[in-house]
Amino acid sequence: MKSIAILHEGNAKPTHDNYLVRLLIQHLNLDNNLVDFYGMGSKSNFFKSDYVAYQLLKPKITDNQINKILL
Amino acid sequence: MNNHFLTDIEIIQFKCFTDFKASGFKRVNLIGGKNNIGKTAFMEACYINLHSKNIDTLITAIHSIKFRRENLNFYSEGIDDQECIDHMRNYATKSNLSEKSFYITEKDAKKEYKIAINDEEVIINKKDLNFIVEHIDTCEFIDNFGWVNHELIEKFQAIQKQDQEHELNNFVREFDNSIENFKVIGDKPQCKTNGEYRDIVEFGDGLRHYISIICALYACENGYLFIDEIDNGIHYSQLDRLWELILTLSKKTNCQLFAITHSKEMLESFARVAKKLNEQDISYTTLVKNKQQEIKAITQDYEMLLYSMAQEHEVR
Predict the structure, then answer these.
(1) HSE of B189 in the Cβ direction (CA atoms, 13 Å)?
(2) Is any Cβ of chain B less than 8 angstroms from the Cβ of A39?
(3) Mutate which: A52, A55, A58, A67, vs B, most B CBs within 10 A
(4) How do strand B90-95 and strand B8-14 relate by DSSP bridges?
(5) Cα separation of B150 and B133, whole Å?
(6) CB contacts < 8 Å between A and B, how many?
(7) Contact yes or no for B307 and A12 at CB 8 A
(8) Dihedral Cα B77, B82, B85, B90, nearest 10 deg
(9) For residues B297 and B292, what is the distance between their CA atoms, to the nearest angstrom?
(10) Alpha-carbon distance B272 to B269, whole Å?
């Protein structure tokens, strides 16, 4: 389990965007292993409370498995 | 048809669990989590809840989980049935199906068992407890040591009764094409290879485990199967085949299955095969500890699991 979630627009599969963010985390000497990416698909999904990423995140936040979220 | 499935459970008290809740269980459920978090204890709590139809089946379930955990010690030190039962000081669960509890109380040097099954409660004096083994044949537990010969032989009878030997042999040949047949000859499970039957102990543990799972799925028709360390002895290249078999057979026999794994490959295979077969009646539960060190369950359904796997999340 990771403690930081980064929610981004785009494909659920790893993309060049999150690869770039990983390189940035690495460059800043931060721990990549703490981060999980959540591809939200289109922008409108950010506003859907029943979107699968939110369903996954909710129990993880409630049970203290994730303590930082970056949108 | 699936009315007998356990969908949610509250473990009020049992081993490391206090006021623990888990829900969202489907037909095939995989359980993960770090070492010593309570995965086996969780399955044991579910097993006792489902196996206990009356006092004898409840006591049998309590006895059997202790026996399974410590059978190697019992072989060297001997077994005391009363001790096996007495190790369980407190057990209380409430599921969507039933409510069960078992407490041992001591007052004025008098020991009593307080047992409740749904609304019925009985108190039995220690001296009056008559241990009668009453096993529910459609509720089985395969522990991480796997089944011994007599268990395998007993469950193979379910295949014989249903005339499914041909089906079993097809599964076994898919697993290892050098094996022609599986049979019980005398009191020994045996496999035929190069035209000759040989004792199953001469083959690898994976084969015995594989055959045990097939036999158990037939034996637990309209029942429940629990498998600890499901990938024990199974080569990674056989994992998809194993899940295909489990997802297909459990549907055919209407058997609810709970299994534990630590293996990332096993989990990936589970998601991959479920997707391939479009089998959505599955769940993956991770046991975790929160800041207060309480055990919590995070359950993912088919859609959530596939999303996590696509994102390459660390979900074990």
Answers:
(1) 22
(2) yes
(3) A52
(4) antiparallel
(5) 16
(6) 43
(7) yes
(8) -120
(9) 14
(10) 5
Domain that holds residue A60: 4-70
Which value, in Å, is the radius of gyration of the alpha carbons in chain A?
A: 12
Phi-psi region of B233 (alpha: psi -120 to 50; beta: other; left: phi over 0): left
- What the block records as the tokens of B301 is 């359904």
Domain count, chain A: 1
The tens place of each residue's pLDDT in chain B, 316 residues long, gives 678 999 999 999 999 999 999 999 999 999 999 999 999 999 999 999 999 999 999 999 999 998 888 776 666 676 778 888 888 889 999 999 999 999 999 888 888 999 999 999 999 998 888 888 899 999 999 988 788 899 999 999 999 999 999 999 999 999 999 999 999 998 899 999 999 999 999 998 899 999 999 999 999 999 999 999 999 889 999 999 999 999 999 999 999 999 999 999 999 999 999 999 999 999 999 999 999 999 999 999 999 999 999 887 766 6
Taking an 8 Å cut-off on Cβ atoms, the answer to whether A63 and B311 are in contact is no
Which residue's structure tokens are 């011994």? B148
Please state the ipTM of this predicted complex: 0.86
By the 8 A CB rule, do B107 and B123 touch? no
Amino acid at the residue A12: A
Instruction: Flag if A14 and B311 touch (Cβ within 8 Å).
Output: yes
Nearest CA in chain A to B309: A13
- What amino acid occupies position B116? A
